[in-house]
Structure formats: C-alpha cells, structure tokens
Design brief:
Length: 153
C-alpha cells in the first residue's frame, strides 16, 4: 500500500527531552520522536492513525459533531489549519486549539458539547481533551510498548 508523505505530528512543545516516554505536545512515544526521520511512510502513517484514533475517541466523549460539512466550511473560512483526511473529531481539536477563548457558541460550527460538559468553558474542554489524549497515549505506551522494551533490556 502506498501512502501520501506524512508530515511530522510535532507541535513544537516537545517534552521527551526531559525523560518522558510520551511527548506532551504531539503524544508520540519518545522513540518515535527520535526515529521519525528514519521511518518509512507506512510506519509514519501507522503512528499518525494511532494518534488520530485516540484523539477522536477523546473528543467524541466531550463534543458531538452534528454537521461535518459546516465544521469544514467554518475551519476553511476561519483559515484554521486542519488535516482534511483525518476524522472530523480531530478537526474539532484543531478548532479548539486555535480559538477556544474566542468561541462562545459551537452551533455555528455544527458542534454540540456532550451533556456532561455543557456547563464548561471551551478552554476547560480543550484542556481536558489534551490531558485525556496524553493519558490514553501514555496508557497505550505502558500496555503495549513498555513491556517489549523491558524484555529487550
């Protein structure tokens, strides 16, 4: 299978240099950050898809996408960078990173907060998404990657 070239998921807030096993910025594992340039496009694609799956899961628990076309239209109109090939829930996180402080109503974006998040400010929701995304990436590392690293040592 041939994939389009995959850009780095780096967001310029790397924490792996401080000894963490998962980057707080992009949520990749430390070895993935270090070895990224040596990976094939297929390996990069696998990493990006894992990150998208985890992020989509976290966002969907907090925000419902009611109208994908409207969300896409608004992102384009507001000139917010987003990956059109990724799940729309990933687009939501891009939107919140760009404008959680300015957005007062999600309806014009085709979005709605899940009931348990309805009374929260969007900045709180954005920060909770980021923390849960990090927690899921860390749990994935602890469950699937760390045991293999221990066996190699």
């Amino acid at each position: 299978m041939i994939f389009k070239p995959v850009r780095t998921p780096c967001v310029g807030v790397c924490s792996t240099g401080m000894g963490g096993s998962v980057c707080r910025g992009c949520k990749r594992f430390a070895h993935e950050v270090i070895d990224w340039n040596a990976y094939s496009n297929e390996q990069r694609y696998t990493i990006v898809k894992r990150l998208e799956t985890l992020l989509s899961q976290v966002v969907a628990a907090k925000i419902q996408v009611l109208n994908e076309a409207l969300l896409k239209e608004q992102l384009e109109h507001q000139q917010i960078r987003f990956n059109r090939d990724s799940d729309p829930h990933c687009w939501v996180f891009d939107l919140l990173k760009a404008g959680a402080r300015q957005i007062e109503d999600l309806a014009p974006y085709g979005l709605e907060l899940q009931p348990e998040w309805g009374k929260c400010q969007l900045v709180e929701v954005r920060d909770a998404i980021d923390q849960d995304f990090f927690t899921l990436s860390s749990a994935h590392f602890d469950r699937y990657i760390a045991p293999g690293l221990l066996q190699q040592a």
